[in-house]
């Protein structure tokens, strides 16, 4: 069977399940096989209730004394049961799974396995899995994959599909040259592909993973190098001269650019005027002021009679940039027209926007990746700015580039990576670093507290609001599903409303809301109408409301430090003193050590390097760094050594044999072409 067949070719996967797989990006058998576990469960012996630890995933064996109850609060249904042993009692809670009531029978002994949390002084196990004793024993001491799930698609279904896919898959011909496999002790490809899903122990898992990470970096870096070669020295039809009008805008800003911003801007302008195609990355920590560089570059293009496009990863961000640009332009009498293109606009709105773009009535175009749809026809597109390279992938950037006559490309990144790694990962780009924060910023004051501190935190938020400021509260994460997470945010906001005086306006934001709703809430928060915003991490990137001074993060221990840093970066963006309150439900030593890094420093580079020291190379079980440089398996920090090795090898091989024409590279060439071809095809959607 070809691995390119749809997953619905597997037994037991009908149209409905196929659709659910599609939601997580799995269409073919190949996609399924590279849908890697995000964690592995180990099944330890069940413990007594008294031995349960808060926030840990653990198992207890017990019989139910009476059938479970079905409780309802608002839209949430909860099936609840209580189990007891000599050491204590435990509540079992299943949210929105009413069928669990008939799945567990009173009188029978089961093993329940799930995360234990404490609410109102009681221990609760959330969404426990239920096993018969025999079934559990069969799993004990093994490693079981845990996949990213979506509502309706359970881990069990994915595991079953994976097993089937592995059985029927077409084996891959080994493509990594033997000398590389030997030198780096790489597992054979089919072995790796199987054992990443079903390792029998950690050693096997690491062996399989290492091979796949090696490949992942390898293909990526070949892609980067191809891009570089493709573009290097490319003459540009867009020689964009420095314009007086742009200088005037810069001088009219309510602040002076920092030295680092000036440097970056000079490099950008000199690239744009230089007669060659610009391929530049601007790297700068959160809040360092990258946006204004982008805006000035767009104006430079516009005042040279060309178009410039700014592409960002979310609607909220696109709108924010669009609105703030409009404001800036109006305030300064700038006669340039920005236009917005996002997925949630109505067909009519879109058509109008497309017309303005095609007729060149608009010269600055802001949007999400709706910008690269075929229907958008540009006129003299001379500059493309994407603000997070890896949300889009190298290929999409290329695609947008092809919409003009090789426009200049500027990439923005807030990922604090060391220069050595940046040079490898952004090998196709020149790099400008903004390593200085605007003057007058005060250091954010941090604290790490436990949940008992909440009421004090609310009182603090109230005080800040009374002083005219605003606050974010990032809601506890819920692993079970995005749906529950959304409901959780709604409930949290309700409770917070009660805790705060009526005069404080509290609203919520989560990923499941309609784009229009999200936009409305964000606009109201930006204008100060909403004072406290309860949100999931949708708020993470790029949002700029300088009047917000408090960032309160619930369950801070569940986030990677890079993500915490991004979240915290939403405050401290204005002149006022800002605060970050990290609430941790679990005071374990590791957690405290990690959060202490955040407590000590506001510097993204420092945080990344300290985090790495704590986790150590090859630590794949720690909380994953979550940033823009996301690979499926590889982690640029903990796998930095592999990344460096791969970079050396890719360069050496391609220096010697750019076309991979040697016999020993025959299979490698096939794989590389397939990878690059797939990527472009995928991005052409
Ligand atoms: N030189 C400066 N002096 C004072 N304020 C500045 C300066 N440059 C930018 N700002 C302001 O700082 C805030 C943050 O800037 P910006 O939104 O560009 O950050 P960023 O680098 O894009 O950060 P992030 O990666 O977090 O999105 C904005 O309100 C902006 O107006």
From TrEMBL:
InterPro entries: ATP-dep_DNA_helicase_RecG, DEAD/DEAH_box_helicase_dom, Helicase_ATP-bd, Helicase_C-like, NA-bd_OB-fold, P-loop_NTPase, RecG/Mfd, RecG_dom3_C. Keywords: ATP-binding, DNA damage, DNA recombination, DNA repair, DNA-binding, Helicase, Hydrolase, Isomerase, Nucleotide-binding. It holds the Pfam family RecG_wedge. Residues 453-613 form the Helicase C-terminal domain. CDD domains: DEXHc_RecG, RecG_wedge_OBF. Residues 271-434 form the Helicase ATP-binding domain. GO terms for molecular function: helicase activity. It catalyses: Couples ATP hydrolysis with the unwinding of duplex DNA by translocating in the 3'-5' direction; ATP + H2O = ADP + phosphate + H(+). Its EC number is 5.6.2.4. It comes from the Bacteria. Plays a critical role in recombination and DNA repair. Helps process Holliday junction intermediates to mature products by catalyzing branch migration. Has replication fork regression activity, unwinds stalled or blocked replication forks to make a HJ that can be resolved. Has a DNA unwinding activity characteristic of a DNA helicase with 3'-5' polarity. Belongs to the helicase family. RecG subfamily. This is ATP-dependent DNA helicase RecG. It comes from Enterocloster alcoholdehydrogenati.
């Amino acid at each position: 069977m070809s691995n390119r067949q749809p997953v619905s070719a597997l037994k037991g996967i009908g149209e409905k399940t196929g659709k659910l797989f599609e939601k997580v990006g799995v269409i073919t058998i190949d996609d399924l096989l590279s849908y890697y576990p995000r964690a592995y469960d180990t099944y330890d012996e069940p413990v007594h209730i008294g031995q349960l630890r808060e926030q840990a995933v653990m198992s207890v064996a017990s019989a139910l004394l009476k059938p479970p109850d079905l409780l309802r609060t608002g839209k949430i249904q909860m099936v609840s049961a209580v189990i007891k042993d000599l050491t204590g009692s435990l509540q079992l809670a299943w949210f929105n799974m009413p069928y669990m009531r008939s799945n567990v029978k009173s009188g029978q002994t089961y093993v329940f396995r799930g995360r234990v949390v404490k609410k109102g002084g009681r221990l609760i196990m959330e969404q426990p899995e239920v096993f018969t004793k025999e079934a559990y024993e069969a799993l004990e001491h093994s490693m079981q994959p845990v996949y990213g799930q979506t509502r309706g698609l359970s881990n069990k279904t994915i595991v079953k599909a994976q097993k089937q896919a592995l059985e029927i898959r077409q084996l891959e011909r080994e493509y990594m040259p033997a000398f590389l496999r030997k030198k780096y002790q790489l597992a054979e490809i089919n072995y790796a592909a199987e054992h990443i899903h079903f390792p029998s122990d950690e050693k096997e898992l690491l062996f399989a993973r290492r091979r796949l990470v090696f490949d992942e970096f390898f293909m990526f870096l070949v892609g980067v190098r191809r891009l570089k070669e493709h573009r290097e020295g490319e003459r540009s039809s867009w020689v964009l001269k420095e314009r007086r009008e742009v200088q005037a805008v810069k001088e009219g800003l309510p602040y002076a650019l920092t030295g680092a911003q000036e440097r970056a801007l000079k490099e950008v302008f000199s690239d744009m005027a230089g007669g060659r195609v610009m391929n530049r990355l601007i790297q700068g920590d959160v809040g360092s002021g990258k946006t204004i560089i982008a805006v000035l570059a767009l104006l430079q293009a516009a005042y040279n009679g060309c178009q410039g496009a700014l592409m960002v990863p979310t609607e909220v961000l696109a709108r924010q940039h669009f609105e703030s640009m409009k404001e800036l332009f109006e305030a300064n009498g700038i006669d340039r027209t920005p236009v917005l293109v996002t997925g949630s606009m109505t067909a009519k709105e879109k058509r109008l926007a497309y017309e303005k773009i095609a007729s060149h009535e608009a010269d600055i175009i802001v949007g999400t990746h709706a910008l690269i749809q075929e229907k958008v026809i540009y006129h003299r597109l001379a500059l493309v700015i994407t603000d997070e390279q890896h949300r889009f992938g190298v290929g999409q950037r290329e695609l947008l580039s092809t919409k003009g006559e090789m426009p200049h490309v500027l990439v923005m990144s807030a990922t604090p990576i060391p220069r050595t790694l940046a040079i490898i990962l952004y090998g196709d780009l020149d790099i400008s670093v903004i390593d200085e924060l605007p003057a007058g910023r005060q250091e954010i004051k941090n604290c790490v507290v436990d949940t008992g501190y909440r009421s004090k935190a609310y009182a603090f938020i109230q005080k800040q609001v009374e002083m005219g400021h605003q606050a974010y509260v990032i809601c506890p994460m819920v692993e079970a599903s995005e749906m529950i997470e959304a409901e959780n945010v709604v409930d949290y906001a309700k409770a917070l409303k009660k805790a705060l005086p009526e005069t404080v306006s509290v609203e919520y934001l989560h990923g499941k809301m309609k784009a229009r709703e999200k936009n409305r809430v964000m606009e109201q928060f930006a204008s100060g109408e909403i004072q406290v915003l309860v949100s999931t991490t949708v708020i993470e990137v790029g949002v700029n409301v300088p009047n917000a001074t408090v960032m309160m993060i619930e369950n801070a221990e569940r986030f990677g430090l890079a993500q915490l840093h991004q979240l915290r970066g939403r405050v401290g963006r204005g002149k006022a003193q800002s605060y970050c309150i990290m609430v941790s439900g679990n005071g374990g030593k590791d957690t405290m050590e990690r959060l202490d890094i955040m407590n000590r420093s506001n510097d993204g580079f420092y945080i990344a390097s300290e985090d790495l020291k704590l986790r150590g190379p090859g630590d794949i079980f720690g909380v994953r760094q979550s940033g823009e440089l996301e690979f499926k398996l590889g982690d640029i920090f903990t796998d930095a050594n592999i990344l460096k090795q791969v970079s050396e090898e890719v360069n050496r091989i391609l220096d010697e044999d750019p076309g991979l024409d040697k016999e020993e590279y025959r299979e490698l060439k096939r794989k590389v072409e397939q990878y690059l071809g797939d990527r472009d095809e995928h991005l052409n959607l």
